[in-house]
Structures are given as C-alpha cells and as structure tokens.
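Field log, afternoon session.

UNIT: design team B
ACTIVITY: writing a sequence onto a fixed backbone
BACKBONE:
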C-alpha cells in the first residue's frame, strides 16, 4: 500500500499488525530545511486528527507536527533524537511515530500520492 497524506504534510503507512507509522512529507522537509530537533508525542498519548502532537525544529523555524488520525501512540523513533537530519535525507522513509488508530477507516479521508501532489500545486 502506498503512503497516504494529510493536508498538514504528514504521511502514514499501515503496518501488518494494524498500527500505522507516521512521518513528514518531502515537501515539509523542503520547507523546514536543516532539521535539528524532533519533539515526539509521548508513548501512550491519545492523538486527535488534525491536532498538534509534536514539534519539528529546523535552523530557521519550528513547526507543529499534527496527528494524522485519532489513535494512541505506541512507539517513537528515538534514533531521531541523535540524528534528526534523517528527516531531511529520507523524509518519506523515516518514520517519527507509530500509532494504533482508533478508527482505521478514517484513513480513507487522506490523500494518495497523486491527490497530495495536486494539493501541493494549489
């Protein structure tokens, strides 16, 4: 299954166990540039779709990280603590957090790659 995207430039990818991984799009990392810090949502915290759940800082700005769907955080990618630049190097292959969606069908409201690229052109 391909990545699905939100209007807040977050992608999700379903895992075989029913959880989903989430990260930021290439467009987001291009806007931020040199990422120096990732503030994760806490493991066990509840996510509400479209509500800020973390923070990404670059040398030029900081940006909220928005929850893609309702759910609960089950894991964070701690390697980003020491190497946040991974998000610049491979943004759509570097996950930030994994979560258990409360309503998996919500993902049907997200954009596939073609729809996301069209959204970016607006």
């Amino acid at each position: 299954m391909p990545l699905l995207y939100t209007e807040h430039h977050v992608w999700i990818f379903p895992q075989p166990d029913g959880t989903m991984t989430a990260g930021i799009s290439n467009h987001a990392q291009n806007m931020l540039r040199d990422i120096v810090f990732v503030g994760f949502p806490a493991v066990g915290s509840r996510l509400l779709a479209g509500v800020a759940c973390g923070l990404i800082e670059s040398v030029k700005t900081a940006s909220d990280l928005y929850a893609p769907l309702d759910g609960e955080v089950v894991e964070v990618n701690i390697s980003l603590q020491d190497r946040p630049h991974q998000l610049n190097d491979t943004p759509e292959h570097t996950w930030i957090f994994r979560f258990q969606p409360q309503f998996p069908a919500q993902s049907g409201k997200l954009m596939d790659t073609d729809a996301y690229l069209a959204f970016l052109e607006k």
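LOG NOTE: The chain has one domain: 4-108.
NEXT ACTIVITY: expression trials, pending approval
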